[in-house]
Design a protein that fits this description.
With 382 residues, the chain is mainly alpha-helical. The protein has helices at 2-19, 33-61, 63-83, 87-114, 121-173, 187-194, 197-226, 231-257, 263-280, 285-314, 320-348, 351-381. Helix 2 (33-61) packs antiparallel against helix 11 (320-348).
Length: 382
């Protein structure tokens, strides 16, 4: 399992480590805010398009080859910019990194499910989420140190070495997990399975958690600055968010496996806690920022392992790659949609209203689930 956790760390560290330091390269490849926005969108855009595709391929040929191929491709794409330091190759390297992460990320999630017993899915995904959170936390910090010491080329070089080392480790330690025989599936069958509440509810919760997390990381520093807080204070608030998410995930997974927590109850609770965090972000000053960061982190930490464990337990094992790829797509849409909603509302009104609108949208998910459950009970009685 450890190489799979390392793969999760790699994709998170690669995503945030580069993204947080592209803006400092204004004299070379990143010449404008438009170019910066394009480079930031390139990685996520590749993931949105390709994760479901590679998830399906993992079911067909086996998750291990897709994992190894993706890690090797990540190392090669990172090395491109080290070898050729030019603006064009930076775009190519970033696109290659996103495409490679689209392969090994859902493959790693599928292997986490395949290599752990059903009664241990919560613990396994809690640990996997913990190391991804560590990657998200350390990416901007260590990436900044590397970019300061040797520029983007050094940062890309470290990512190339990291990807290659994890690929070798996975090739040695991760056992061969042959693909399982699958019944023929039509497009209608796939659409029906993805529209099933068993898939839709955990995926919607994961998307909402990612939206809240992305908004917290991106906009809480803006709220802090507006309240007169310095960069150290706002940076500490974002660190509190990431730390809370990292600490809660393994504990939530263990509670699920021990029967102290149900997936449905945990997802509902996590969504409401994250919404409460966004509501706290509407409060002025340091107290509002810190409360928002802590609650968003706790809510995200609850939702992430429980959502993936619920998906793993309800998915036929021969379709795990496809399900994990589709769920990752939902997370990416939340990652992009949350900031867009808040930014759009903030443009028309204020950032405070943006937080409030996203909080209401998150609360609507559990509310709709309760209404749907009530209707099902009524129809069953009739």
């Amino acid at each position: 399992m450890w190489p799979l956790y390392a793969a999760g760390f790699t994709t998170a560290f690669g995503a945030h480590g580069i993204a947080a330091n592209l803006g400092g390269d204004t004299d070379d490849a990143v010449t404008s805010l438009l170019v910066l926005g394009g480079l930031l969108a390139l990685y996520d855009g590749a993931e949105v398009l390709l994760k479901p595709v590679f998830g399906t391929i993992a079911d067909r040929v086996g998750a291990r080859p897709v994992l190894l191929g993706g890690l090797v491709a990540f190392a090669v794409a990172s090395a491109l910019y080290v070898v050729v330091d030019s603006a064009g190759w930076l775009w190519a390297a970033r696109l290659g990194q996103g495409a490679a992460a689209s392969a090994f990320s859902p493959a790693a999630s599928a292997l986490v499910a395949r290599l752990s017993p059903a009664t241990g899915h919560g613990r396994a995904f809690g640990s996997y989420g913990f190391y991804k959170s560590v990657g998200y936390t350390l990416g901007p910090l260590l990436g900044g140190v590397l970019a300061w010491a040797g520029g983007l080329r050094l940062l890309f070089g470290v990512l190339a070495v990291l990807g290659a080392c994890v690929a070798v480790w996975a090739a040695v330690a991760v056992p061969v997990v042959p693909p399982l025989p699958r019944a023929r599936q039509t497009v209608v069958d796939l659409a029906r399975r993805l529209a099933d509440p068993v898939f839709l509810v955990p995926t919607a919760a994961l998307a909402g958690a990612t939206a809240a997390l992305s908004v917290g990381v991106g906009f809480l520093p803006v709220s802090g600055a507006a309240a007169g807080l310095g960069t150290v204070a706002t940076g500490a608030a974002v660190s509190v968010l990431a730390a809370c998410a990292a600490v809660v995930q393994p504990r939530a997974g263990r509670a699920l496996d021990a029967g102290r927590l149900t997936a449905r109850g945990g997802l509902t609770c996590g969504t409401l806690v994250a919404a409460a965090g966004l509501a706290c972000a509407m409060l002025p000053g340091l107290v509002g920022v810190l409360l928002a960061a802590a609650l968003i982190g706790v809510g995200t930490g609850l939702i992430t392992p429980l959502g993936f464990a619920a998906l793993a337990s309800s998915t036929p094992r021969e379709r795990l790659g496809q399900t994990m790829g589709a769920a990752e797509l939902g997370r990416e849409l939340g990652d992009a949609g949350g900031p867009l909603v808040v930014a759009g509302v903030a443009t028309a009104a204020t950032l405070t209203y943006g937080y409030g609108v996203l909080a209401v949208l998150l609360v609507c998910g559990p509310a709709l689930a309760v209404v749907a459950a009530g209707r099902r009970k009524v129809s069953t009685r009739l």
